Amino acid sequence: MAGAYAIVSGASIAGLSAALWLRRAGWDVTVLERAPRFRDGGQNVDVRGIARDVLDRAGLTERVRALNTTETATVMIGDRGPIGELPSDGPDGPTAEFEILRGDLAGAIRDLLPPEVTVRFGESVSAVHDGGRRVVTTSTDELRGDLLVIAEGVRSSTRDLVFADDVVTRVPMGIDMVFGTIPRTADDDDRWRWYITHGGRQAHLRPDPHGTTRALLSCTAEDDLVGADRDRLLALLRRRFGDVGWAAPRILAGFADTDDLYVDRLEQIRMSTWRRDRVVCLGDAAWCVTPLGGGGASLALTAGYVLAAFVPPGADDDTVRRGLADAERWLRPVVDEVQSVDPRVLRLAYPRSRAALAVTRLAVRAVTRTPLSRLVAGAGEVVPTDRDLPEFTARR
Ligand SMILES: Cc1cc2nc3c(=O)[nH]c(=O)nc-3n(C[C@H](O)[C@H](O)[C@H](O)COP(=O)(O)OP(=O)(O)OC[C@H]3O[C@@H](n4cnc5c(N)ncnc54)[C@H](O)[C@@H]3O)c2cc1C
Predict the structure, then answer these.
(1) Closest CA to 64 of 49, 50, 47
(2) Closest CA to 193 of 216, 161, 164
């Protein structure tokens, strides 16, 4: 088919979902990934709301179920043990039906790609011309395409190349997160255990299906964690978390021995538009919600389907522009809703003083031990299920 060549930049959840659905819609697809090989790291994400429908249509439901992290509930921990528990409550409860590691989800989508979809590792976009029709890559190749999909995550360089500064707004959330995999011990159970303490610090332990435990240290952004080399990162974490109780010493020791640390200074991305000519941004590159909003993986998965449903292969410029506008119109309300994080909730979650911590723990007890827990359970429904996915015409 003439005029049906799509270049997707970024081989994670948004890019691989776009590649899968564009291919099924009849596009020829090449994926560029900056990393030298497939990135299978990453911690717990979930698939919620209408993204479950996308999983189903992709034929991925059973595969993702089999890769489930086995988590069953969320427990809030105080200095003397658990202070409240949010059980799993329906498919979109605090513990979703589909809890999965980021790398496992990306790998499951990748495994569905037919061999005609090429993934070029160690390669990225260095210039974009003619509204996305000519793409120069770092291997100095020039690719001629009809659609360029930028799915490069929150720090996307191609987004910054194509879209002017006044289109892209970065909203710092003031929170750092350091994720890592540590050895599982006999005490680890199938619940997400979440400890909050004063000084704006949190420690988390979560189960995984690989016989290890996923740990997270999170804190208000006061140190230069992002960009620090490994030794400095570990030293900064020891300084910040050295006096924290519960599992913090074990996590610090585990981080010193793991090679999959993932550090993030949380920043939301807000773009006044996600499209320009034949170029579109998807996933965290376009609307990073951060783990505070949740739903990033669900949105990334859904966006690939929605894009392919609205933008037909072989279309003229006007039809492509209209398709991209329709896809944006469909996705925009869902993204806007997920991006609104109440600053009061942030202050509660990262209390500075011991007095503020006491208020947080009171709030946790109120939320977990009263009918309020049902309300919190309902708040997990990002990417709501009360709307239908757009029609999709498979051509392959
Ligand atoms: C290795 C890794 C680990 C992660 N771990 C966690 C975690 O533990 N917890 C959590 O909540 N979220 C994590 N995330 C983020 C999470 O995956 C996303 O929030 C969400 O799934 C949306 O995915 P995305 O595809 O839009 O972006 P991402 O998952 O961020 O993927 C972007 C992809 O684009 C590639 N890329 C970046 N720049 C370029 C470029 N210029 N050219 C070509 N390719 C490029 C990246 O290597 C990556 O493969 C992780 C992401 C990655 C890449």
Answers:
(1) 47
(2) 216
Which residue's CA lies nearest to atom 28 of ligand 1?
153
Distances (CA, A) of 26 to 42, 84, 381: 31, 50, 32
- Tokens (6 digits) for 308: 């392919």
Cα–Cα distance for residue pair 100/103, rounded to 1 Å:
8
pLDDT score of 95 more than 70: yes
Atom index in ligand 1 nearest the CA of residue 284 equals: 26
Binding site membership of 126 for ligand 1 (Cβ less than 6 Å) = no
CA distance 268 to 299: 14
**Which residue's CA is the nearest one to ligand 1's atom 21?**
297
Alpha helix ranges (H) inside the chain: 13-25, 51-58, 61-66, 102-112, 157-162, 230-241, 248-257, 284-287, 290-293, 296-310, 317-339, 343-349, 354-369, 372-378
CB 142 within 8 A of CB 135: yes
Is 94 a pocket residue for ligand 1 (Cβ < 6 Å)?
no
Between residues 256 and 383, the one the model is more confident about = 256
What is 5-68+98-170+267-339's CATH number? 3.50.50.60
Contact assessment for residue 202 and residue 194, using Cβ atoms and an 8 Å cutoff: yes
Average pLDDT of the chain?
Answer: 92
Mean pLDDT calculated for residue range 16-43: 95
Domain boundaries, the chain: 5-68+98-170+267-339
